[in-house]
Write a structure and sequence with these properties.
Blueprint: H1 2-5, H2 13-24, E1 28-33, E2 39-45, E3 50-55, H3 62-78, E4 87-88, E5 97-99, E6 102-108, H4 122-139, H5 145-148, H6 173-188, E7 197-200, E8 209-211, E9 217-220, E10 227-230, H7 231-242, H8 248-262, H9 267-270, H10 273-294, H11 300-303, H12 310-318, H13 320-330, H14 343-354, E11 368-372, E12 375-378, E13 383-386, H15 399-411, H16 421-433, E14 440-444, H17 447-462, E15 466-470, H18 479-482, E16 498-501, H19 514-530, E17 535-540, H20 556-566, E18 570-574, H21 575-578, E19 599-602, E20 613-617, H22 619-628, H23 639-654, H24 657-678, E21 682-688, E22 691-699, E23 704-705, H25 707-719, E24 722-723, E25 725-727, E26 733-736, H26 744-762
Parallel strand pairs: 13-24, 15-16, 15-17, 17-18, 18-19
Antiparallel strand pairs: 1-2, 2-3, 3-6, 4-6, 5-6, 7-10, 8-9, 11-12, 12-13, 14-20, 19-20, 21-22, 22-23, 22-26, 25-26
Helix pairs in contact: 4-7, 4-8, 6-10, 6-12, 7-8, 7-10, 15-23, 16-23, 17-22, 19-20, 24-26, 25-26
Bound molecules: 4'-deoxy-4'-aminopyridoxal-5'-phosphate.
4'-deoxy-4'-aminopyridoxal-5'-phosphate binds at residues 446-448, 451, 474-477, 541, 574, 576-577, 603-604.
Amino acid sequence: MKFLTANTPALSLPRIAAGLATDYGLSGHLSPLYSERDQTLLLRTDTGDGLVVKIVNAAEDAAQIDCQLAVLQHIARTDPELGVPRVRLSRSGQTRSLIDTHLIYVLSFLEGRVPGHAPLPPRTLALIGTLQALLAKAMRGFFHPAAGTRALLWDSRLIARLVPHLSQLPAPYSAQARTAIDHFLAHTLPELPKLRAQILHADLHGHNLVLSPDGSPSGVIDFGDMLHGPLILDLANAICDFSTPDSFAEVSSHILRGYHAATPLDADEIAPLYDLILMRLIATALIIAFRRHASPDVPDYMAEGFGQLPLLTILLDLGRDGATDRFRQICGLPPLHHEPRSIAALLARRKRVMGQNPYLFYDPPLHIIRGEGVWLTDASGRRYLDFYNNVPILGHCHPGVTAAIATQSRILNTNTRYLGDQVLTYAERLGALTHGQLTACAFVNSGSEANDIAWRMARAWTGAQGFLCQDFAYHGITEAICAVSPSASKTGVLAPHVRTIMAPDRYHHSQHSAASFAADADRAIESLAECGLKPAAVIIDAAFMTNGILEPLPDYLAQVFAKVRAAGGLCIADEVQSGFGRMGTHFWGYQHHGVIPDFVTIGKPAGNGHPIGVVLTRPEILDHFVATSAFFSTFGGNNVACAAGLAVLDAIDTEDLVRHASTVGAHFKAGLTALMHRHCIIGDVRVTGLAAGVELVSDRATRTPAKAECERLINLLKDQGVLAGSEGINGNVIKMRPPLAVTIADIDFALAALDRALSLLYSVPKWSCT
Ligand code: PMP
């Protein structure tokens, strides 16, 4: 507290003028400027230039002055555009000189308006945030021992030293401040040394800011409170100092937004922001309190008293969690705390805007707010192992994919009508995964679209009109593809050009062989012929997901493809479900059947959640199609989609997920088979890689589907913390498709949950293995 006792220097103007002339060769008109510790003057030279002359308080440490002058010289080198004072060297090339015994230095004067306490518009506030970030960036590589060793009273980390003065705050602020300080010292302070740190200006407020005539911030002055500390401290001080009790919400949002745009802050830096703002507020009030106490002769701005203190109550009302979530939101981070909302209210709201038949999982439905890896979290904070969702094949919010999307979206996101590297690399990598067999790509946005375009290509190539699919298939939502999605049909009536083929379901048709199952394709082709039609294509999901997740039957698909090709048709492998290593061992599902299709269509997992659809085919088929029909999809193959797609391929490689799916899939299968031995409701277990189906029957001998029980079990399983779905023509197959990164421990968790859920199902005594 030496500045309270040390006297401000008071040299006469003629003495200063003489010193400036001798040491700096400067002359002009001198006028005093306000300064708390030093004697400060404005020198207007004869040419009209403004210079600030500082005669340093004798109690000031010369090393601190050198530090300030060195940082200004550093900034002049690292960011010459930044509005900070320039150091004027003396005639002998020194940054400082002496008048009598007083240190003196000269800086350029930043012309403009100092806003002081004046309220500032949102644009200015955001620019202040940006300016502060740029200033800190310019200072990043700067170091000076004097900044590191300083014990500044204004340093919020030293707030404990001010605690003895708490009683000088009016009620209720003293008690509120005490609670806040206690929390800060116990929980926040110990975390600060883990954060990115550097020498900071640490004192950006309305009296240290210069505005240009258009109101935008043009400069920062007064480096007298520099310290070495966590970057976020700088921002906390500015947010606090620019805020009033009425304006905190706005001011903090705009400054933070501006700052984050220039220097993205991470979650660890956001975490202490609220407490650091509180500490700045309390430290300011306490310093004012004890200065007033020690010396009634305080500067004007301090005599304003505790005007900012009501902000303390406002901040405490807002709460640490609420404020931090708001800061996180501004910085693009998900909230940590969530007000659970009424499911009934959400449902009613949904019906109002999304139709009266809500197509939702589970009863009651889940309100999911966050995903991470294999886990989903609902609004109450409950976590669920996601064994349903085949889209996040790498796990929810995979960091490699989210980073690729975020990075690319900041660089460029446009369509494929410009030349670019990314889409070519993505196409080449996909083509290589087909071993060079299908190297021509058409980019769209979804699995449905990919199938739709494959179908159009097949018709264009063959000139035929017939379409074959499996009897309970699903391939998408467009009109053409809906026609080959009988599982989604409400009427069960097929379009005249569509024929279905019986699925190779050996559990219900054990008498059949691959050849006899495949013979159904002959029947379908003949049936088309009876109507004067030929097959243009057959579309197959190699995992037979909607048909109840059927394991590959050797040679079955090869025979179907041969029959379709013999009739002039092409073969579409819809890899929306079965691709990307879902079935283990191979990247594509069709490889499990030893076939080579004419088209591979991809969707869902291709972007791990980002919409991507691609048709892969032979170059001549694509060329024929685009020669005969206009094709361009605005978003298909855009830069962000390709970045996501490439990140997915990278992760599958680097995390060795295809092999992993085989290994953990085998463990899953063994566990499910063991459950089948204990629970007689399980009639069949079918697992290929990480595509698993558990068929429930009310009678193993008759294989009678247990549909209602399956539905109940899915909900019981959800209550046990595992999400699964139901599938199959009879709706009695539990469908489980965890992200490929699922661990053995996750699988054991799911198996134990399924075991418990099955036991709960038996509490209806009807179920007994004997
Ligand atoms: N094909 C298959 C095998 C699918 O499972 C799906 C979606 N469930 C689609 C195509 C359609 O994909 P999308 O919903 O992305 O259009």
